[in-house]
Amino acid sequence: MPTKHLALIACLSLLAACSPQAADSAADAAPKTSPVGPAVTAAPAVEAPAAVEATAEAAPSTDLSSGDEELDKARAAAGCPIPEDVYDVDDVRVYCAMPGDVQAFLARENTCQHFAGEEPYDDERRRELEEASAKYCEGREKIFTDLVARHRDDCATRAALIGINSRYDLVFELDLKPCEG
């Protein structure tokens, strides 16, 4: 089945499931059970947002508009599913060519940047932002330094990591230079 056809079916199914009528009937018919937390697996050395785990089965979201034409074009040209958490155009452009641990880091870093830009308009939101910051932002420099060490001999990954470092001001002391050759 073509990807666009699958994406259309998925969107229509989601729309039907999220309609107010579906929510009302589901609430009436649903048995009362205790909630079960989602099983989330993280890539080695990097805890990624939930969207990263879902991309293995997801179709690329090239049909959905983000409102940013450049980002939409980059997603369409990417060649692989890109999690919605990855919204920086430069990150989208390199995402598919990166190893899994770097992809997970990109999703995590984009999520960190998202929450770092949010305003704590009340105490509850402040707590949410602090928790998100702890989950996605703490330890990012160490994770990045480990990625650089792990991929030091891969010139393409190294070049992408140099760009990531300059975009997010991760580790100033790191002597990152492109491969010579």
What can you see in these coordinates?
The chain is globular. The protein contains 9 helices and no strands. α4 runs parallel beside α5 (89-95), α6 (100-116) runs antiparallel to α8 and α6 (100-116) packs parallel to α9 (155-168). The termini are far apart. With 181 residues, it is mostly helical. The chain has helices at residues 3-18, 20-29, 50-54, 69-77, 89-95, 100-116, 123-136, 140-150, 155-168.
In short:
57% of the residues lie in helices and 0% in strands. The protein starts with a helix and ends in a 13-residue tail after the last helix.
Number of strand elements? 0
How many individual helices? 9
Summarize the main sheet: none
Kindly report how far apart the N and C termini lie.
44 Å
Average residue-wise pLDDT: 75
Low-pLDDT parts are: 18-45, 50-62
Rg calculated over all Cα atoms:
19 Å
Please state the structural category: mainly alpha
- As a percent range, the share of helical residues equals 55-70%
| Percentage of β-strand residues | under 5%
* Tertiary shape: globular
Order of helices and strands: HHHHHHHHH
What is the topological layout?
Blueprint lengths: L2 H16 L1 H10 L20 H5 L14 H9 L11 H7 L4 H17 L6 H14 L3 H11 L4 H14 L13
Helix pairs in contact: 4-5, 6-7, 6-8, 6-9
Which characteristics define this entry?
single chain; 181 residues; mainly alpha; 9 helices; 57% helix; globular
